[in-house]
Every structure is written in C-alpha cells, then in structure tokens.
Amino acid sequence: MFGTALRFVGNTTLGLLADTGALWRLTASASERLFIGPLRGERPRFRSTIIQSVRAGYDSLPLVSLICLLVGMIMALQSAYQLRQLGAMELVPSLVAISVTRELAPLLTAIIVAGRVGSAIAAELGTMKVSQEVDALTVMGIDPVSFLVVPRLVALVIALPCLTVFADVIGILGGMLVSVTMLGMGSSWYVAFTFDSLDLQDIITGLVKAGVFAGIIGLIGCHQGLATEGGAEEVGRSTTASVVRSIVLIIGADLFVTALFYLRG
Amino acid sequence: MNDEAPIIEVEKLSKSYGDHRVLDGVDLEVRRGETLVILGGSGSGKSTLLRCLVGLEQPDAGTVKIRGTDVFNADERILSKLRQQMGMAFQTGALFGSMTVAENIELPLAEFTELPASTRRIIARIKLGMVGLEDSMDQLPSQLSGGMRKRAALARALALDPEILFFDEPSAGLDPVTAAGLDRLLLQLKKAFTVTLVVVTHEMQSAFAIADRLALLHEGHFLISDTPDVVRECSHPTVRRFLDRQPPVAEGGAEKFREFIDRIDL
Fold first, then answer.
1. Would you tell me how many other CB atoms lie within 10 Å of the CB of residue B11?
2. Is the pLDDT of residue A3 over 70?
3. Are A156 and A217 in contact (CB under 8 A)?
4. Using a CB-CB distance cutoff of 8 angstroms, which residues of chain B are in contact with residue A143?
5. A-chain residues near B55 (CB < 8 A)
6. From B56, which residue of chain A is nearest by alpha-carbon distance?
7. Which CATH number fits domain B8-85+163-263: 3.10.50.40, 3.10.20.30, 3.40.50.300, 3.10.20.740?
8. Number of Cβ pairs closer than 8 Å across A and B?
C-alpha cells in the first residue's frame, strides 16, 4: 500500500519533470527559430502569423468586451458599496481604473484567451500530431516548431497586449456606465477623475503582464498539442490540460510580476 | 549501375520500447533505382524501421545513412536538404486537413523553391494528374475516400521529384481493386522516373507485384532479403508460413484456450 503510494508520487514527479524539460526545450527551440533563424536567412512566416493574430485577437474581441464591460460594472458597484460608508464616492473612478488596468483587464483577457485560443491551439496541433501531419512536416524537411509554433506564439504576443488595451477601455467604460446611471455621477467628471488617477505606469504594468501571459498560453498550448500521442481521447486530454495549466501558470506569473512591480515601487 | 554505393545503408539498427525489442540489429542496403518491399506481420517492427529510415524515430543503436549522410548525426540544415530529396507517403495519408489537396502539394514547393504561385499550381495539377486526382484539386482531404487520400499523399511525396520514395502500407485498408490500382500506379512511376522505392506492407500480392527485392522482417530482423522468385521458393518455415498465410503454430491449442478462459474471472 505504502509502496504503491510511493510509486505513484515518484512516477508523477518524474512525469512532471520530464514534461517541464520538454516544455523548456520547446521554449528554447522556438526562441532560436524566432530570433536566430532570420539571421541564418530563414524567411519569417508573416502570412501565417497574421492569420493566427486575427484568430487569436480579432476573433476574441466580442467575448473580451462583454466580460470586461460586466466586470467594470461590478467593480464600480463593489467599490461604491465600500466607499459609501467612508463617504469617499469620488474614489470610485480611480479604484475602477487602477484595478482594471493593473490587474483585471490583463488577467481576465488572458484567462479568456487561454480558454478560447490556447485550447484551440492544443486541439489543432494535437489532432495534427495524432494524424501524423506533424511527422509529414518533419519528413518533408519543414521544421514543425518554426512552421506551427512560432507563428502562433508571435501572434499571441502581439494580440494579447492589444486585447488588453481594448479591455482597459471597455472595463473603465463599464465602471462609468454604472456610476453615471446608478450612482449619480457626471460622465465628464468621471472621465476627468479617471485620467487624473491613472498613471502610464499602470497601463504598462498591465501590458507587461499581458506579454508574459501570451507567452505562457502559446507555449503551453503548443507543447500540449505536440506532446499528444494516441487518438481522439488524448487530444481532448491535451486540450483540457492546456487550459488548466495555462490558467494556473498565468495566476502564478501574475503574482510574480505584481510583486516585482510592487518592490520596484 | 549496381557498382555504385547503395543509396540507403542501415547498419545494426536496434530499437526497443520498454522491454520489447522491436528492431534487433537490422542490416539493410538499398541500391539506387531499386524497389525494395519490406514485408512483415503486425508488430514485426516494419513501421518502426521505416520511421527510423526517415529519421522520425531515434534508434537505440546502429546507423542509417542516406546518400552517405548519417541521418541521426547530421546538421539540421543538411538533414533538411536531404529530406527534400526524400518523399514519404503515410499510411493514412497525413494530408494537412486545413488545406485543399492542391495546397497540400504546393506546400513543399512554396517552402523549398522560389516558384511563383501560378507555377506551383500547375505543378500540383501535374502531380495530381499522375495519380488521377486532378478533379479533386480544390477538395479538402476530409472529402476524399481512403484510396484517394493515399494517392494524394503519393502526389505530395512526389512534389519535389524525390530520389527516394517511402511508402507506408500502400494497400492497407483498401479494397482489392483500388489496391491493385495503386500497385500499378507505383509500377508506372518507377518506369517513368528513376526513383528508389521503399515500400512497407503486409500485403503479399502487392509486394510480389511491385518488388525488385523482398525483405521479410520477423521479430526484429530480416529472415530473407532476395528477389521475389527466390523468396517464393524459400523453404524457411517462418517464411513459408507467412507466404502461405498460415497462422502461427499454436502451442497447446484447445487446451491452452480452455485454460485461458478459466483464468478469466467472470
């Protein structure tokens, strides 16, 4: 009984380590293809990158807008509930603006994109892997990492910060909508207070986060996809694993980056 | 022509999955322009051997040299160049599902040549014409039948006019008529181009139809590797069993089966 438990822990640890190793190798080879490849005269894959950017960014706009609008509204109501007791309702715009730009917009956008795009990448590459399409690329002499992984990764690193800026604006608009209609604030007053309280630093913090999150989503999605072996069931498992792992890593990285900015002042 | 160095040289190739030894010191030479058919039952290691030949699977020991280049110790760029001279048709086609049939064939041309799109399209049409699929150019692979997919895969493998063509199970999963059609297509291609053909199959009929040389893989090594006529007359018991389609000699027979049934806990 004890032996079985020990074996389970051992195997799980070994599996996790092997997985981390493979993820690290993928990161290294993708960076090499991306940064050193062009120096060796490899053509960057612009067309494919643009197609992937549209898929990751433009197609995510409606969902990101809806969620961020609602969260902006909720934030305004929640902060009003607290601030009313202190008689400090004029702090609502700044609270909404700062929490949305520094935290909520990048985090929620990343989680939405992990669910929408990261999972799609894992499923697509996983299906290609199990139907030997990845092997076919290799045999042709086309490197799967530069053909499949790099365009998706670059697309996400471009699209996610753009989506985050968009989410910032929509989130603040959501806060304003509630403040004007339910809390009796003037819209020009709200906008003025928002701009007053918002630093460029706040937006940059959010964008740095978005860049890191994009890397996580892209690499985990591609890694899970390319590591798929077997059949349809494994594709499903890879897809789920990509979303779960992305979200866990995103929140971990969020804490790390937030702490870093906090310590730097 | 036979005096030249072989185009494919395999030496002492071994590969195990866990405790199971799939390839056990395989030696093989393929001459330029030759059609070699690797025969073997399910699980005899023939697919693994093919995957090792094209560099998809890293062997535990041994070397594979293609045109003198060691596939497992070559620089990535040299390997990529080498691969452009090799084509492989996969068992289920492995066509890119997101592209049309024509785009599948244009992909290697777009990657490795400077040809303009219109020329690539013409070449795709020619290659598809060779396999009788010019009417399906703009269909997606999912709209094709199994036999058509294999033919499209063959056309894609031929896109860059390779010197060596690998074909994994050309007749598996096809009806006899379609399978025979594919065999005839391979023979025609062989006549038209000086392509070295390595085919892995378990279908006796198509093996004898297309082979210059037959090699029978059994439990990780070759039992025989010779011309179809010699193989047909071979008296080795395992070879004969394979040729005569006899099941392996049962050990214990009915008694063992009864024992097995009893052991299953109902």
1. 14
2. yes
3. yes
4. 76, 80
5. 138-139
6. A135
7. 3.40.50.300
8. 53
Chosen from A132, A147, A229, A235 to mutate, greatest number of chain B CBs within 10 A: A132
pLDDT one-digit tens code per residue, A239-252: 999 999 999 999 99
Rounded distance between C-alpha atoms, residue B24 and residue A81, angstroms:
75
Instruction: Label each residue of chain B as H, E or C.
Output: CCCCCCCEEEEEEEEEECCEEEEEEEEEEECCCCEEEEEECCCCCHHHHHHHHCCCCCCCEEEEEECCEECCCCCHHHHHHHHCCEEEEECCECCCCCCCHHHHHHHHHHHHCCCCHHHHHHHHHHHHHHCCCHHHCCCCHHHCCHHHHHHHHHHHHCCCCCCEEEEECCCCCCCHHHHHHHHHHHHHHHHHCCCEEEEEECCHHHHHHHCCEEEEEECCEEEEEECHHHHHHCCCHHHHHHHCCCCCCCCCCHHHHHHHHHHCCC
Q: Across the strands, what pairs with B87?
A: B165
In the block, tokens 């003037």 appear at A186
Helix axes A200-226, A2-31, angle to 10 degrees: 110
Contact A132 B86 (CB under 8 A): no
- Hey, are the CB atoms on B94 and A135 less than 8 Å from each other? yes
B72 contacts chain A (CB < 8 A): no
Nearest CB to B56 within list A128, A138, A143? A138
Give me the amino acid identity at A192. Answer: A
Q: Give residue-wise pLDDT tens across range B178-210.
A: 888 888 888 888 888 888 999 998 888 888 888
Residue A98 has pLDDT above 80, yes or no: yes
Q: How far apart are CA A192 and CA A179, in angstroms?
A: 13
Please check whether residue B107 touches A, CB under 8 A: yes
Q: Is A184 on the interface with B (CB under 8 A)?
A: no
C-alpha to C-alpha distances, B185 to A114, B155, B179, nearest whole angstrom: 47, 11, 10
Of all residues in chain B, the one with the smallest CA distance to A45 is B111
pLDDT value of residue B178: 80
The reply to whether residue A141 touches residue B90, judged by beta carbons under 8 angstroms, is no
In chain A, the residue whose alpha carbon lies closest to the alpha carbon of B88 is A139
List B24's β-bridge partners, or say none: B14
B26 — phi, psi (to 5°)?
-80, 130
Give contacts of B95 with chain A, Cβ < 8 Å: 133, 136
Q: Is the CB of residue B197 less than 8 Å from the CB of residue B36?
A: yes
Nearest-angstrom CA–CA distance, A91 and A102? 16
Interchain pair B108, A142: CB under 8 A? yes
Stretch A203-232: mean pLDDT, rounded?
93
Q: Where are the domains of chain B?
A: 8-85+163-263, 97-161
Q: Which residue bears the tokens 């030894």?
A: B21
CA distance A140 to chain B (A): 6
Beta-carbon separation of A139 and B97 below 8 A: no
